Amino acid sequence: MGPEGSSLTNGDMPFSVGVMHQLEGRKLVLGFDLAGEGTSLDSTWGKSNDPVQALSMNLLIGGNLADGGRVKTDAALIVGLRDTARYCAPSFLGFQCYADADPTQDYAINFGGVVTVSFDSIVVGLRATSESAQIVAGVRF
How confident is the model at residue 1 (pLDDT cuts 50, 70, 90)? Predict the structure, then answer.
């Protein structure tokens, strides 16, 4: 059961893993991340609208805001897809779906932004989307 008490809300802690890269000689920053955020309703393996953590796949497009050599600030928009539901006809033999077929998945648009500040090789920041907000920690190389 989710934090709001809704039986259709996932209560797992959100997370994300990704990379950002500034193009050589330009202020353009590109990146990609995978995140566990929001809720997807799972109706496979004999379940019916079981709330599980959704997976989002996102592109990051932004720029370098300031570069003082040792200290650097970047910001990017996040745009991607997040799964919202998985469903299929139930199996009577213990498969995920009837006749071991792949489940159908529904998706929604995921959007948000990320801001990072790096000090030498240490990166900290904030990532926020329509589904979650997270503190970012990483390494610059």
Answer: very low
Domain boundaries, the chain: 15-139
> For residues 87 and 104, what is the distance between their CA atoms, to the nearest angstrom?
5
Give the distance from CA 19 to its chain's centroid.
12
Residue 88 in this model has a pLDDT that exceeds 80: yes
Q: What is the pTM of this model?
A: 0.85
pLDDT in tens, 99-113: 999 999 999 999 999
CA distance 108 to 111: 10
β-strand 71-87 against 50-67: which pairing, if any? antiparallel
- Residues in Cβ contact with 25 at an 8 Å cutoff, skipping those fewer than 6 apart: none
CATH dotted code for 15-139: 2.40.160
The radius of gyration computed from the CA coordinates of the chain, to the nearest angstrom, equals: 19
Give CA–CA dist 31/61, Å, rounded.
Answer: 7
